[in-house]
Amino acid sequence: MQVIFDNLPTFWGGFLMTLQLTVVGGFFATVIGSIIAVFRISPVASLRGFATVYTEIVRCTPLTLVFFFCAVVLPILGVDFPYLTFAFIALSVYTSPFVAEALRSGINGVAIGQAEAARSLGLGFGQTVGLVVFPQAIRMTIPPLINVFIALTKNTSIAGAFFVPELFAAGRALVNQNGNAVIALLLGVAFFYLVITVPLGQIAAHLERKVAVTR
Amino acid sequence: MSGSAILFDAPGPKARRLSRILSVVGIVLIAAGLAWVVMTLAAPRQTSGGLELPGMFDESRWDIFAEPIVWRSIGEATVRTLQAFAFGAVGALILGVVLSILRTAANTWVRIPATVLIEFFRGMPVLLMMLFILLVFSTGALWAVVAALVVYNGTLIAEALRAGIESLPKGQREAGLSLGLTPLRTRLLIEFPQAFRQMLPIIVAQLVVLLKDSSLGYIVGYPELLRTTTNYLANFYGNRYMFSLFFVALAIYLTINLLLSWFARWLSRRTGSGSRRLGAAGPAGAGGAPLGAGEDTASAAASSNL
């Protein structure tokens, strides 16, 4: 136990880095995911096809491979960024199709009569989606989206293996220095992850119940 | 996307032409982007030292694949990946079933610890678990990978099964009890088979996640596909093969995962009619047909697993 308090600054630094990875990665994943989701329901067939293929391929690629591509293969190809930027890119690209699918399943969950009503009032595609379908879909989308962000939080640990000094990497470094306190240190790392993921999960479950009642 | 047709008018001649033009423009843009990537990869490059390196599709970067021994070690690595997946999947399914039954038990002394256990393992990275098992139990890399995959995915499968049990109509349990079955037998014989069947697509999707996560073995030193190709083989034959070896590993992962996820979708379509019938009996069936009429909630949830 003492070893955790002694190394609290290291834990704290790693925790802040993990938070940063989650927030920035989540933000860009949401941006890319929203674009892909709009492509997926758009009237233009080639955009739909592109979005489908993108979703399928990225979703079936292990995150370790995405990270490996960004952190090891891209530098060989001559792209040079700091490792943190590579981690942001890998996390947001990997998470984006899951965001897109969450948004799309929310849109699919809106009753078909809503879209019919909007269309019969003479609204176009943009207005139907933007003013009628999307505001309703977003409510149903929030719980699955939070689950995506929980998974993202856990996935940031892989960045630790690719040269980003976040929580997992901090834990691993501390374990290497204090071989006699492995269990305490790793449980400490687990605690910091749970601090993020458990409250998010509670919020998601709460919202899910609320949405389920009003639907 | 049969449902999306409702979002816009059936296109007239003008709109059809516009959409066709946009489609062509889109295809051209995407093709141009892909062509640019391929050209960039294929172009020879100068290093900072003034050396000229051959492009990524140059023969000198791919010639190792003519050697059968390379393919044999890739094949063995694939087998090791699938081995971790197979052990992990079987273990996770067993653990998931057991935990879901404990989690829904009537006895508080069983239910609460199971809940805490599930919440604890669900909220923590698999990678951390692998490291923990590797260092604390010194099991060796394979069993560290397998055990972490079992615990992590087992808890997630348990949660899916619990949701399946709770979504069943109450009458199922009441009917079982009124036939004189004990509560446990009702759960095992009446509720569980239905929940399992309903949640099968989500469970298979979770197995896709398990397969993807087996690549974390790369980090804890298990010689699975990624580590074998990009580490051992690339070190042995030289770094210039890194890109081609990575490309082959990616292609193998994609093939296996796409097959598995198509299987998941096929399953969800097949079991879809059964679960919709059940859903229609409950309150969830109210509120009109969803926009994507072809897709039920189980398959939508299946596709959102990370």
TrEMBL record, chain A:
Any one GO molecular-function label of the UniProt entry: transmembrane transporter activity
Family: Belongs to the binding-protein-dependent transport system permease family. HisMQ subfamily.
Main location: membrane
Transmembrane spans: 12-39, 60-77, 83-100, 121-138, 158-175, 182-205
Gene Ontology BP annotations: amino acid transport
Keyword Cell membrane carried by entry: yes
Name of the featured protein: Amino acid ABC transporter permease
Topology of the protein relative to the lipid bilayer: Multi-pass membrane protein
Alphabetized UniProt keyword annotations: Amino-acid transport, Cell membrane, Membrane, Transmembrane, Transmembrane helix, Transport
Domain ABC transmembrane type-1 residues, every copy: 15-204
Cellular compartment(s): Cell membrane
Entry's Gene Ontology cellular component terms: ATP-binding cassette (ABC) transporter complex
Gene3D superfamilies, alphabetized: MetI-like
From TrEMBL, chain B:
UniProt keyword list: Cell membrane, Membrane, Transmembrane, Transmembrane helix, Transport
Subcellular location: Cell membrane
KW Hydrolase (keyword) present: no
Transmembrane spans: 21-43, 82-102, 114-135, 241-267
Domain ABC transmembrane type-1: 78-260
Skewed-composition ranges (Gly residues): 282-291
CDD domains per UniProt: TM_PBP2
Biological process annotations from GO: amino acid transport
Topology term for the membrane: Multi-pass membrane protein
Protein name: Amino acid ABC transporter permease
CC per GO annotation: ATP-binding cassette (ABC) transporter complex
Family of the protein in this entry: Belongs to the binding-protein-dependent transport system permease family.
Organism name: Labedella phragmitis
Molecular function via GO: transmembrane transporter activity
NCBIfam families named in the record: HEQRo_perm_3TM
Region called Disordered, residue ranges: 275-306
Keyword Disulfide bond: no
The organism's place on the tree of life at top rank: Bacteria
